[in-house]
Specification:
Layout lengths: L5 H19 L5 H14 L3 H14 L4 H13 L3 H14 L4 H13 L4 H14 L4 H13 L3 H11 L8 H13 L6 H11 L3 H16 L4 H11 L2
Pfam families: TPR_19 (PF14559)
Keywords: TPR repeat
Protein name: Tetratricopeptide repeat-containing protein
Length: 234
């Protein structure tokens, strides 16, 4: 079989699988190993191999919710938007109580389809399941600032700031919203400091500052910020 065929891809997965075991130590379930491999492949933007690993997870467990969501996100990243959307809808149908499914579908609708109205619906549904989802509140703030509802945007950023999250994309969204709000509202400075204090380490705090600067200056600095967030968000 050619180098681009499925055998070569499988061999690559097994090689990385062995490396993963060496790094983490000990035995792990086959399903979890393939899921971790998929996350690693996504971080490296090797989406085809990530999807192969996710196929292995879903063969063993078709209801692995994290793998299904990562598959939908990976399809979105490679531009298969219709397939991604269909999968998000299927996930929500099969897992109606999964708050992160509504959040990720809302994010997809907002950023990939530029549809703030439908994004708002999904984000609000997710927040009824998990009112403490800081990232969902930040995304909802992005919806409101895009649609001119600045007071509601500020309110949801304030709510988001009450909860901790390890979701690195949260800080990028907060930076976007804050940069747009500070021109029209005075309360953003204290809120920015609160959100900044939530950054888990020095690197995250530095990039949060850079994200704020990039939004203030426009698009000039955004590519570097996006590369950083793409590198660390999974």
């Amino acid at each position: 079989m050619t180098a681009g065929g499925s055998v070569a891809k499988t061999e690559t997965i097994h090689t990385d699988n062995n490396q993963l075991l060496d790094e983490k130590g000990g035995e792990r379930s086959e399903v979890q190993r393939y899921y971790e491999i998929a996350r690693m492949k996504v971080r490296k933007k090797r989406f085809s191999e990530a999807l192969d690993a996710l196929d292995e997870v879903l063969k063993a467990n078709p209801f692995h919710i994290e793998a299904l969501l990562l598959r939908a996100i990976s399809l979105e990243d490679i531009g298969h938007l219709e397939d991604s959307k269909n999968l998000f809808e299927k996930i929500i149908l099969n897992f109606p109580d999964c708050s992160s499914a509504y959040r990720e579908f809302g994010r997809f609708l907002l950023f990939s389809e530029n549809s703030p109205a439908t994004a708002e619906t999904q984000l609000l549904r997710g927040l009824t399941k998990n009112p403490q989802d800081a990232f969902a509140h930040a995304l909802l703030a992005e919806v409101y600032v895009r649609t001119g509802r600045h007071r509601q945007a500020l309110l949801h950023l304030e709510i988001a700031s009450r909860f901790r999250t390890e979701e690195i994309r949260y800080f990028e969204v907060c930076a976007k919203v804050l940069a747009r709000l500070e021109k029209s509202m005075e309360k953003t400075k204290d809120l920015q400091q609160t959100l900044f204090s939530h950054a888990g380490n020095r690197a995250e705090r530095a990039f949060f500052r850079r994200a704020i600067r990039a939004e203030r200056k426009g698009k000039k600095e955004r590519p570097a910020i996006k590369r950083y967030f793409r590198k660390v968000w999974f």
